[in-house]
Give the backbone structure.
Amino acid sequence: MADQTQMLKGILDGCLLAIIKEGEIYGYELAAKLESYGFTSFSEGTIYPLLLRMQKEKLVATTLRKSTAGPKRKYYSLTEKGEQELLLFHQRWNQLNKTVNKVLKKEEM
Amino acid sequence: MADQTQMLKGILDGCLLAIIKEGEIYGYELAAKLESYGFTSFSEGTIYPLLLRMQKEKLVATTLRKSTAGPKRKYYSLTEKGEQELLLFHQRWNQLNKTVNKVLKKEEM
DNA sequence: TTTTTATATCTTGCATTACAAGGTATATAA
DNA sequence: TTATATACCTTGTAATGCAAGATATAAAAA
């Protein structure tokens, strides 16, 4: 049956937007931040394709900057469209949350 | 970007288990019940394959019974394994819930 | 100098799963 | 006998998390 992997579908992108909104951040750092929030460790094969997708959709803008200890970092920031998408995500998530919790609470009785 | 469709992945099956636990129910009825809980209407192309999958995994047991107004109904009930899976789903859902809400709350400040 | 290590990003291919579309069958009512 | 509501199933598609592997840079160790 479904594991955490499946549960993340359609949720991870919203979380990325939320974290990027806190301030410019680059991919490698983002992966670490997600873990610090309680997500199980993230593969780069998950993060980078997602970031590229969001860049294509113009939800995020990017800037390359030199690193002190490796190749250039690609910093992400939210666009106006990204902010709007984040708001929509909030709504979808809250709705889902409410509905699922209703189903689960009912079943406990 | 992801819509409700993607968000449901790995969540819908747990919700089905939760509803079936409330009492024996057949597929067609289940679809209606989900709507009553606040989910947007469900295609039968979503429900039936999922139920068959859960049957194969022995999470649910089935009984055919005559209907008063149509072909036979296939009633589903939880197996012992299904109950355990439901518990695991609860844990996964609560964990996800906590983590995502933490990310979203932070971003609001 | 050469090698190793940590940092940093990207690509390819796979598995899972919600869903649309279409098909079949039964019972009642018009 | 036709229409309608009920009830279930199958096939194919799209979306997306992730494993595995490739590439590149900079600092430290050998």
Chain A touches chain B at residues 1-11, 13-15, 18-19, 21-22, 37-39, 54, 57, 59, 85-86, 89-90, 92-93, 95-100, 102-104, 106-107 (CB under 8 Å). Chain A is about 60% helix and 15% strand.
